[in-house]
Known about the structure:
about 325 residues; alpha/beta; D-Maltodextrin-Binding Protein, domain 2; 2 domains; disordered N terminus
Amino acid sequence: MVLAVVAVLVVVRSMNDRGGDPWEGSRPDSLVVTTGGTSGIYHGYGVAVGDVLSQEQVPVDVLDSGGSVENLQRVADGTAQLGFSAADAVADAVAGRGAFDEPLPLCALARVYDDFVHLVVREDSPVRTIEDLAGRTVSLGAPRSGTALIAHRLLDAAGVEQDDLDGRSLGLAESIDALRSGDVDAFFWSGGLRTPGIDRLAESAPVRLVPLGEIVEDVRARHGSGYRHGVVPQGMYGSTEEVATLAVPNFLVVRADMPDPVARMLVTTLFDARSQVARTVPAAAHLDRARAIFTEPLDLHPGAMEYYRETKS
């Protein structure tokens, strides 16, 4: 696992304005945010928020990771205090199923933006549907990632057996390199729009996205309404038409026992930073108070709930 650490400082702006210390005299040596691969939006979002939060108080370490499953495990065991995760991995974590041996003690600060599943092939590839992956070499996402979770569910819904293809467990950066070199025929990626690494790939090697809209309802029937229909707009990654796919919300997650004032401070800063973060991470512009509270099946942290109640218009 590649580990990147970016030292920044936390501004405890919300509670200072209210005349209190959110840490109540027990500031940690650092605040750790676990994100994703360095070519994806989780990591860019975490770094950008860290940059905005830099002034005083507590150093923040921004870590890259394999993705949602690893992030949830890190937050639950205390390796990290905040993490990004897709809703499907969260559902498994709170139920103690799939990659999780027992329910994890987690809460959400916000629904931040939605992921869209990318099934990426070269422009001249004969692959036109997910069923065409049979007999080909395909990257299914990094181990313990949300991409791997959703890729297997999509293949299952499409009736493509794992033995029917040569599956590789590659992160986004490795998947991009492998498609460019011809080592894989396709790769899955679940991420926001637009994903920087795929954007750069499309500039150097024409690619297209394989439509997945026809199997969304099957995936929803099997795995729940956290999944929805999504559309990648025309022009994204050089496409000449919009592409129907599957979408899933992303949450910012903390342990359930995080002190309420700290959780409230973090949510306040997240919203205060939205415009500045969106300059480098366009997905941050989708952060919205009216939608941020919808984090089912994960409960909102009481400190976050306090913020939303006080700022309700």
